[in-house]
Amino acid sequence: MKLRDIYRTHIASQKTPVISFEVFPPQNSWETLDKELTILKKYNPALISVTSTSSATNCEQNKLVQNIQNTLQVSVMPHLTCMRNTRKDVEEYLTVLKDAQTDCILALRGDYPSDGTSPCTDFRYANELVEFIKSKSDISIGVAGYPEGHIESPNINEDINNLKKKLDAGADVIYTQLFYDDTKFFKYTELVRKAGITAPIISGIMPILSYKQIKKMTTLANISVPDKIAEKIELYKDDTASMHEFGIETAVNQCRSLIESGICGLHFYTLNKSYSVSKILDNIL
Length: 285
Ligand code: FAD
Known about the structure:
single chain, eight-stranded parallel beta barrel, 15% strand, binds flavin-adenine dinucleotide
């Protein structure tokens, strides 16, 4: 199903938000990921997205994409980055996706390789990738949005102008970076709408799982953590069980507040783990 149709169904019914998950090709146990995905499937995700990073080959990403689509029979949205693909790679991959009847793709610039390898340079920004995909295929396209502005952007308004270029080039839906301060998301949504962007904005949710994870994620992408949450993270620094429970409670509150505001989709960054996401969904659905 195309992205617009997935979210249009929600807008028509207005009952519960559309649920989607993000996973990555595992570095070791595929069997463990299969088990986690089987648990997550019970929550009827509209789609599962699969990341593209230097820690996995395109072949591993494809294996996971095919597994989700064919074995789990859930719609899948592979991520595709400018950094890892030439025009020729993209063209070939679109043919693979067409043959496999995959309906959606998440078009990203990607992060610069951390292993010192040179990135591909055919596309500089995600809007160029969106434009190229659109010229070659009718696949529906998701793009990334940043409620606190992208880390390289001088300010949020400039970042939203650049977001608009992706939508004008033919993208259908915006998936946001994870955030913990809902007020920033609400303000962002307001600014995006003011800029004339009407596409669905899907909130990115990452449950807090551990001290190391939250520190890494929020520092890398410069994501604010409200004081009340930051205090608890320090308190449970060495207490994994309490941190998990706190992470679930925080995400449940966040999802409830987002649902109340009328958002149409929740996209969970699962980190390939089902426990916290399942508990959150048990509470909110
Ligand atoms: P762009 O939209 O190209 O923006 C990058 C920067 O350039 C921004 O500061 C923007 O304001 C600016 N900019 C954009 N267009 C222009 C233009 N035309 N002219 C001048 N400036 C411009 N990374 C991975 O490597 N693999 C993944 O699988 C992955 N999945 C992700 C999923 C989601 C939902 C999100 C939110 C992020 C994901 N990322 C992933 C991270 C993402 O690749 C990085 O944040 C990257 O730095 C920016 O990607 P983008 O597509 O948002 O880039």
